Amino acid sequence: MDRLREAQLRNDVSTLKHIYADDYALTESDGTMFTKAERIAAIGKLKFDSIKLDDVKVRIYGNAAVMTYRPTVKFLTEPHGPFQFQVTSVFVKRGGSWQVVGGHESFISPDAK
């Protein structure tokens, strides 16, 4: 997860292409779906200031893993944030490396209790 977070902070597209599987699919809370190419393009447009991870829980099932976490994200550009999300990511170990194959993320409203 640290490798993914660092690649996002640096907008390191080359590393992101290795971390996200070719069949990657992300669903957002409004039902919007993103492919690998769409996700990397969206990340590439962002200028991150920081990404802090809280409540990280990982469950490993052989060559698969499920990770839940709550990132707090701040941007260098408007709107700066901070913004919080609840995320579930699914990883598969392929060729000795872990890749993200799918996930779901929901925005946490600042008004949420």
Main sheet strand line-up: 2-1-6-5-4-3
- CATH architecture annotation name: Roll
Helix content: 10-25%
Topology-level CATH name: Nuclear Transport Factor 2, Chain: A
How many discrete structural domains? 1
Q: What are the secondary-structure elements, in order, as H or E?
A: HHEEHEEEE
Please report the number of helical segments. 3
Query: What are the segments in which pLDDT stays under 50 over at least 5 consecutive residues?
Result: none
Computed Rg: 14 Å
Overall CATH class: Alpha Beta
The portion of residues forming beta strands comes to: over 45%
What's the average pLDDT?
94
What's the count of strands? 6
Distance between the termini: 27 Å
Helix/sheet category? alpha+beta
Quick one: overall form?
globular
Q: Summarize the biggest pleated sheet.
A: 6 strands, mixed
